[in-house]
Write a structure and sequence with these properties.
nine-stranded mixed sheet; globular; 11 strands; Spore Coat Polysaccharide Biosynthesis Protein SpsA, Chain A; alpha/beta
């Protein structure tokens, strides 16, 4: 049977952490929290569940994940965001894979998104469900310079399998949280625009936001989610505008 490390990136993550840890303790042989300065009960909860806790000042998601992956004890690594709760069927599926041996370099996991308490079809910039890599062999699959610093993806895999048993992602539980994350993520995305020397002319500032709203509300299906979908359309517009406005200021 393969051993598994699990890591979670945290900062003031007390809300869902008990539920996450209760689930991952069923399958992981080591649980590691990489924290970037929590002031709530994150540490207390982690200690209660017997987690290993490391501190790293946050710069971007790619490098935070690379650090966490390097610090894991075992080569097979399960990783989750601090608002992603594995379902019972997913835990059972991983236990089965663990018992019989992993046949691929990494595994994509179905992720169902919840916005303001509602299961949605769209959470900009993602269509729900999506299938991010959440289980990998760290000797082969890595977060390196090929990955973006936000909405990061690992590289190096030769074979990938998909797991349909889901993890549930509870993002934007309140309007305040939506607004806070909007400004946080657009700052990171603006840095990405500048780092990759992407175009950021005035037309990007004014035309791209309108295009984003039309694309995500009508063509990507946010309209299916009623009032929450309307807010997602507005979020896509504001996100795109702020990303380019901040990028122009950086430059």
């Amino acid at each position: 049977m393969e051993n598994i490390s699990c890591y979670i990136l945290t900062r003031n993550s007390e809300k869902y952490l008990p539920q996450i840890l209760e689930q991952v303790k069923k399958v992981a042989d080591e649980v590691l929290l990489v924290d970037s300065g929590s002031t709530d009960d994150t540490y207390t909860i982690a200690q209660k569940f017997g987690c290993k806790i490391l501190y790293r000042s946050f710069d971007n998601y790619r490098d935070q994940r690379a650090f966490a992956q390097e610090k894991c004890k075992y080569d097979w690594v399960l990783f989750l965001d601090s608002d992603e709760i594995p379902t019972d069927p997913l835990i059972q599926k991983i236990l089965e894979l663990k018992k019989r041996g992993f046949q691929s370099d990494c595994y994509e996991v179905r992720r169902d998104w919840y916005v303001l308490g509602k299961k949605v079809h769209v959470c900009y910039p993602v269509i729900s469900p999506d299938y991010p890599v959440r289980l990998l062999n760290r000797q082969i699959v890595k977060f390196d310079e090929r990955s973006a610093i936000v909405h990061e993806t690992p590289h190096g895999q030769r074979t990938t399998e998909r797991i349909q048993e889901p993890v549930e992602h509870f993002t934007f539980s309140t309007a305040w949280e939506m607004e806070t994350k909007l400004h946080y993520y657009t700052t990171l995305s603006a840095q990405e625009v500048v780092a990759r020397n992407k175009k950021r002319g005035w037309y990007k500032l004014f035309l791209s936001p309108i295009g984003a709203w039309i694309k995500w509300y009508f063509f990507k299906g946010a309209w299916k989610d009623g009032s929450v979908g309307w807010k997602m359309g507005a979020y896509a517009l504001k996100y795109t505008y702020l990303k380019y406005r901040k990028a122009r200021r950086i430059a």
